[in-house]
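Input sequence (200 aa), recorded before submission:
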Amino acid sequence: MTRRSPLVTKPRLTGAALLVLALALVLLWVALTARGADAPAGDGSSPGSPASPAAGFEGVAGTAAVVERVVDGDTIVAEVDGERERIRLLNIDTPESVAEDRPVECLGPEAADFAKDLLSPGEEVRLVFDVEPRDEFGRMLAAVYTEDGRNVSVELARAGLAEAITVGENDRFRPDVQAAMEEAQDASRGLWDPDGPCSG
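Predicted structure, token format:
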């Protein structure tokens, strides 16, 4: 007598199983999206204004601004919420290049040019604030982040074109700027080059 092998059937997804699978995929997508929206240094919002979406800014949540021009290494002019604002970059001091009452300092023009390379007119950036949103001259005080997530203050310090400083209680970005400045010092870059133009 010949035995027949048992009939093998392929399992089929029922409507309920498909619904559960679709729901799981949606929840996974929501979780991954929410994880990417975290700011590197807090919520990034300015006092009294909501944080902007982080899409395209490497997870940096902050206030959107459009660069109008770079004034010098540590100051820019940008449009913020429809207003033209002068913005002082937090936690750095670059050599002077445009002050009317002070001479051009060593590597001042180079610091300004470096900032211009990072911040082109018309480019969108994110501003991230600290304790004090303005200085005594009425300038906004903010860290400026490029679309690829770079803090311009840190980049200037790493290039050896800025010193790390703290003004008032605004020390939120000081550790990163300090570490970048020490990296430049160790590598003898820019202001720290013993054979450079500022060594005398």
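Checked by second reader. The chain has four helices and seven strands.
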